[in-house]
Design a protein that fits this description.
single chain; 239 residues; mainly beta; Jelly Rolls; seven-stranded mixed β-sheet; seven-stranded antiparallel β-sheet; 54% strand
Length: 239
């Protein structure tokens, strides 16, 4: 029997700092919910809106796989490995913090907010050499099909690589389209995050920014009740 946990958009943590309007699917910074610390090895899924001309100053990370997906605008990234690069809609950035890095992220636009999803996943190896990668993904290749954005570093699967046995998929779905996914292992679960639209996942309706965690299932079926976009994270579940 499949197990599920529902995280509605309105139940997320919310902080409005003026320059940053952010929603937390899991406990983060000043918001803590003991029932929502992680989903398997998925530790953070933040839905961030950053005002023009503002950003996150230089700060450290270690032993975390960090994935950034820009939905609107452009985010400029700088890090202690020497990278300076903008991330734009359609692009995904991965960073293995490993033994330790510093980085900053800024919206250098004077008139447009940047909207991004930032994801943190616990790695399966400690203190690896920090690494960075970025890739543009063709929107047409996720139309009514799964586009693999992220996959484990030791596989030949598509997408950017991370130090964890986890996969991230994205799809833009038309009304009445149904997509399915099978887990790579019985020990894996799926975290289904609705970016836009209205979906039905195993009988549960999800609207924009709602999420459903589901595990102990041989397959998930996601049906679009309205045109929309969905992000699915397949991750190992912790004991």
């Amino acid at each position: 029997m499949a197990k599920t946990v529902l995280h509605t958009a309105g139940s997320r943590g919310h902080m409005d700092h003026g320059w940053l309007n952010t929603y937390h699917s899991f406990s983060f910074a000043g918001w803590h919910d003991p029932e929502r610390v992680h989903f398997g090895v998925l530790r953070v899924l933040n839905d961030d809106y950053v005002k023009a001309g503002f950003g996150f100053g230089k700060h450290p990370h270690d032993n975390m796989e960090i994935i950034t997906i820009v939905l609107k605008g452009a985010l400029e990234h700088q890090d202690s490995m020497g990278h300076t690069q903008a991330i734009r809609p359609g692009e995904v950035q991965v960073m293995s913090a490993g033994s330790g890095i510093f980085h900053s992220e800024y919206n250098h636009s004077r008139d447009e907010d940047v909207h991004l999803l930032q994801i943190w996943i616990f790695p399966d190896k400690k203190n690896v050499t920090p690494r960075y990668d970025q890739q543009m993904f063709d929107i047409e290749k996720r139309k009514n099909q799964w586009q693999m954005l992220v996959s484990p570093i030791d596989t030949a699967d598509e997408g950017l690589k991370i130090h964890q046995n986890a996969w991230i998929y994205r799809s833009s779905v038309d009304k009445e389209i149904t997509l399915s996914l099978q887990p790579h292992s019985a020990h894996h679960g799926f975290y289904v995050f609705t970016i836009e639209g209205r979906l039905e996942v195993e009988g549960q309706e999800l609207r924009a920014r709602d999420a459903l965690g589901i595990w102990q299932t041989p397959q998930i079926n996601i049906s679009a009740r309205e045109p929309g976009e969905v992000l699915v994270l397949e991750v190992p579940m912790l004991p």
